[in-house]
Specification:
The chain is of the alpha+beta class and about 80 residues long. The protein contains 3 helices and 4 strands; from the N terminus they run E-E-H-E-E-H-H.
Length: about 80
């Protein structure tokens, strides 16, 4: 699916209005949370998964704390 969406002013912020059919495909409604993931192909928008978010926080902490070790392992 390819669709052009327009950025809109929402108070002092900028937002995107998601069409009803897209919300239905995501199985979300007003008030639900979404996750934005940066991928090599671009940005991915998914339903918020608290467990996945927790795992990513742990992974990021490990990568930050053990950066030098991970760099040596990658060589």
């Amino acid at each position: 699916m390819t669709r052009k969406l327009k950025l809109t002013a929402i108070g002092n912020s900028t937002g995107i209005v998601l069409p009803k059919d897209l919300l239905e495909r995501l199985r979300v409604s007003r008030g639900d949370e979404l996750m934005v993931l940066e991928t090599p192909d671009g940005i991915r928008l998914t339903v918020f998964d608290p467990e996945f978010s927790r795992q990513m926080d742990v992974a990021e902490r490990i990568m930050r704390e053990d950066r030098d070790l991970l760099r040596k392992l990658a060589e």
